[in-house]
Amino acid sequence: PLLSMCTDKSTTSLRCWWRQRQKSQHAVTGCDSGFGQATARRLDALGFRVFASVLDLQGAGAQELQKSCSQRLTLLQMDLTKPEDIQRVLQHIQAHTNSTGLWGLVNNAGFNDTIADAELSPLGKFRTCMEVNFFGSLELTKGLLPLLRAAGGRIVTVSSPAGDLPFPCLAAYGASKAALSLLMDTFRSELQPWGVKVSLILPGYYRTGKFCFTERRVGQKVHQALPPAPQPRQLAKPRQDGPVHPGRSCPGARSTTGGCRAGARAVGLTGASLTLQGQHATRPSGTCASSSWWPACPRSCCRPTARTTWRRSTGSSSSS
């Protein structure tokens, strides 16, 4: 009889746990490929309900999610540069989570197509990066805060080491990620009384299905970013305190297809585990940083900041 009672209690607890898991709902942005797609798959496999936003519902990434995931996953089209898309997604999530709230939000969607010196980068590229990487995530997060407070949920944001350290030729992208990281640090302190936890993920170099920063690609991007004005035949050599790399259009640029092997891994579960570390940890770290980007950066421009102490061995960081 005692064994039967224990078995019945275990079965009941397991059923309650499974029902609670099915009620827990998460929103993930940027699921067309890379970290977002891997995270959405993993959450679906764990039995959670997932709202996965993609840029193109007819794209290969969206179709792959439809084939590989269960009916618990809902695909939503969203362009973070269009406020009407964000409002439509907010209304859909609010309509399906009013009673339970939203347990998790993963701000993963990001954008960068400019690899050039800040002087050569058009102002429009800076504005586009800010619209997607900062303002879009800000508007979506603000709209979902009531649901996150109701569930005592968590916000996980995928930022970048380029937002903490000066990466050459990534001024537009780095500035937008720096603004995003500071915003999430502020949310962390403001939402603490409400029981909402906020985590930052700073991944290194990973193959995410998008273009890779090879030296040839960098050179092409820099050339495309040049203004149409006539260029002088000879340019004065710039004075530079750090090491100069002859023959490279961007100092310190390395290929993520062959070089930087420590960090250029297929995303798979690795990218999802980085995000899930902040999503489901009992006491999530404020910032989780991967050390895989370290070997690819010139030492002159990649020094630890006062805010973050980097640990190369574990890939984590601690705020100071």
TrEMBL record:
Pathway: Steroid metabolism. Residues 224-261 are annotated as: Disordered. It catalyses: corticosterone + NAD(+) = 11-dehydrocorticosterone + NADH + H(+); 11beta,17beta-dihydroxyandrost-4-ene-3-one + NAD(+) = 17beta-hydroxyandrost-4-ene-3,11-dione + NADH + H(+); an 11beta-hydroxysteroid + NAD(+) = an 11-oxosteroid + NADH + H(+); 11beta-hydroxyandrost-4-ene-3,17-dione + NAD(+) = androst-4-ene-3,11,17-trione + NADH + H(+). Gene3D superfamilies: NAD(P)-binding Rossmann-like Domain. InterPro entries: NAD(P)-bd_dom_sf, Sc_DH/Rdtase_CS, SDR_fam. The keyword Nucleotide-binding does not apply. Keywords: Lipid metabolism, Oxidoreductase, Steroid metabolism. GO terms for molecular function: 11-beta-hydroxysteroid dehydrogenase (NAD+) activity. GO terms for biological process: glucocorticoid metabolic process. The keyword Lipid metabolism applies. Belongs to the short-chain dehydrogenases/reductases (SDR) family. This is 11-beta-hydroxysteroid dehydrogenase type 2. It comes from Nothoprocta perdicaria. The lineage of its organism: Eukaryota, Metazoa, Chordata, Craniata, Vertebrata.
